[in-house]
Backbone:
């Protein structure tokens, strides 16, 4: 029987979706082409801005997201991975509209925290304004015993949001220092780990500066890729999929 096909709903932003496929490849235990996973990437950068929709009454991204889901269904996908944290604010609506199991990115992050030895207590969280204000992570992680520290409003306005915009404009280097500095501030305030709860943020925090920082940084793109591998090969890996 053929292995499942990982359906990837990308384009939010485009680099995050492409990076997810790269992480899926790098994280898969394989010695040759034929041992890697099958996947289909639908990258649609025309999906309306998720933060504007959630906080400012902008056009809903849901119709475009569901159109992408239909493409993946037609392509034979066995599950759905969305490498965009803010899009998960519509996770319930997406899951209700498809037969495909949705690999929830917050559950994947929780599994990554456990793998890093962080089983509860205070953690830091960075993400888009919509992800933080609407409690996407806070609500789901509270069930697992976590309390989330988030940047202050001024820090969001002056540091995090501009850095995310830089990454979307392909300026990864320009985003590294401010995001790493923000992660350090959260650690200084008592966070045992910092969840990078926007799929753009890990793209700027994989370099030597982040590796030398001593911070426990939870890369949600990588975490979601590992959840997809766990779905496809449950006998080889622990699943962090939630139905």
Residues:
């Amino acid at each position: 029987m053929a292995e499942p096909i990982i359906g990837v709903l990308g384009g939010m932003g485009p680099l995050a979706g492409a990076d997810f496929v790269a992480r899926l490849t790098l994280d898969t235990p394989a010695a040759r082409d034929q041992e890697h996973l099958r996947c289909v990437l639908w990258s649609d950068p025309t999906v309306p801005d998720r933060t504007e929709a959630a906080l400012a009454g902008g056009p809903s991204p849901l119709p475009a997201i569901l159109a992408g889901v239909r493409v993946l269904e037609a392509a034979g996908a066995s599950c759905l991975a969305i490498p965009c944290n803010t899009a998960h604010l519509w996770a319930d609506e997406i899951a209700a509209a498809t037969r495909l199991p949705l690999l929830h990115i917050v559950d994947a992050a929780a599994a990554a925290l456990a793998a890093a030895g962080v089983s509860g207590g205070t953690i830091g969280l960075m993400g888009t304004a919509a992800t933080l204000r609407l409690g996407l992570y806070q609500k789901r992680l509270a069930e697992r015993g976590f309390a989330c520290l988030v940047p202050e409003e001024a820090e969001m306005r002056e540091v995090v949001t501009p850095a995310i915009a830089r990454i979307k404009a392909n300026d990864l280097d320009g985003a590294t220092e401010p995001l790493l500095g923000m992660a350090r501030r959260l650690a200084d305030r008592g966070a045992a780990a910092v969840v990078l709860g926007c799929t753009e943020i890990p793209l700027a925090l994989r370099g030597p500066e982040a590796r030398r920082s001593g911070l426990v940084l939870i890369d949600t793109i990588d975490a979601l890729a590992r959840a997809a591998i766990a779905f496809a090969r449950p006998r080889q890996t622990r699943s962090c999929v939630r139905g």
User: Anything to note?
Assistant: The chain has two domains: 5-104+222-232, 106-220. The longest strand covers residues 5-10. Strands lie at 5-10, 38-43, 79-81, 102-103, 121-126, 146-149, 194-196, 217-219. The radius of gyration is 17 Å.
